[in-house]
Amino acid sequence: MNKRLCVIFPIVLAAAMVLAACAPQATPAPTAAPKPAQTASSPTVAPGKKLRVGYCIPDAANSFLSALTTRVKELFAADGVEVIVASGDSDAAKQYNQIENFISMKVDALIVMAVDPVSVVSAVQEAKKAGIKVLGVPVDNQGPYDAYMHTDQFEIGQLAAKMACDFINATYPNAPDKSVEVAIASQESTPEIKKRTDGFRTIESCPKAKLVTYVDLPANPAPAEGVRAAENILTAHP
Asked: Exposure winner among 8, 57, 179, 200, fewest CB in 10 A?
């Protein structure tokens, strides 16, 4: 009997992917529906004024965030809104300074995907005092934001684990319990990402699955690093 091995990988921000190394093709996991945003009153816009939005992201080098940023700029541009992007480069202090720069620029609104949610609190409070509307994405609770959009990271990881379990059951219906080896390649660099990783670990409740290894990926891993991690896992567990 050929050895069975499945690998669970993350995708940053509100999505997850399961790479089934023993399958011909991987299938993307469903994303958890975001909780309804708590909205704030819209700012009054002077006639002829072009709105400017400061868009703070953890790291533009992340391919998912890069694609998301492009789409956000397109959607805002359709409404005549200028988006100014600031990449935190996975540095909480740098992102804090970027928010302060946006305050000095007197942007009309801020969208903040925090490198570290705690580190930006005082900067967000300063922005609000300056009359800037601030949307937090994602955060655990309302905090100092005027509005927020939150995705349950643990649930995303849990859904990915469930999809992996469904794949195992469908592909190996006659496999004995704990006979299909599973590896998780993820990271725990921030509290939110750790929650998603904890969700991945619920794969252990899948009867046929046996978690054999966990690979800690660097923050904002490049696709090549994910491929390399998968190759190393398959080499260690042929």
From this structure: 179
